[in-house]
Design brief:
This protein is an alpha+beta fold and about 120 residues long. The protein is built from two helices and four strands; from the N terminus they run βββαβα. The protein is elongated, with a radius of gyration of 33 Å.
Length: about 120
């Protein structure tokens, strides 16, 4: 036998691919959109002369609330952004009288529109 020759095996083992039922391993990767939450924002408007908000001075304060707001992102950043937008709107629309400022604001988030609307109703009574 010549040392330069290469011996090749002429028999090949047939490889038969095995196919799994692909539907059994595919998982549902469709993500449903997050269910929205509903929020209301409240602001307390007080005279600039009141350095501290007190119960004694409560009669001089005004409270104002937003409409119900639909939110898909309820992270802390998103909540503060909504409060900032509400505050800007109040100043822009002239809802804050001269000599007064927004001194406190709060956002309340609910799972349903009805819950948010009922809470808003309680505040405006």
């Amino acid at each position: 036998m010549n040392s330069d020759s290469i011996s090749t095996d002429t028999t090949y083992q047939a490889s038969i691919p095995v196919f799994n039922d692909s539907t059994s391993i595919i998982q549902d990767t469709v993500t449903l959109p997050e269910k929205p939450k509903y929020a209301i924002i409240w602001a307390i408007i007080a005279p600039n002369s009141d350095s501290v908000l007190t119960k004694e001075n409560m009669s001089r304060y005004q409270s104002i609330g937003s409409d119900v707001i639909e939110m898909t992102d309820v992270s802390e950043d998103a909540r503060y952004k909504k409060m900032d937008e509400f505050e800007k709107t109040l100043y822009k629309d002239g809802a804050v009288p001269t000599g007064m400022n927004i001194r406190k604001r709060k956002i309340l988030v609910f799972d349903s529109y009805a819950e948010a609307s009922k809470q808003r109703e309680e505040f405006i009574k």
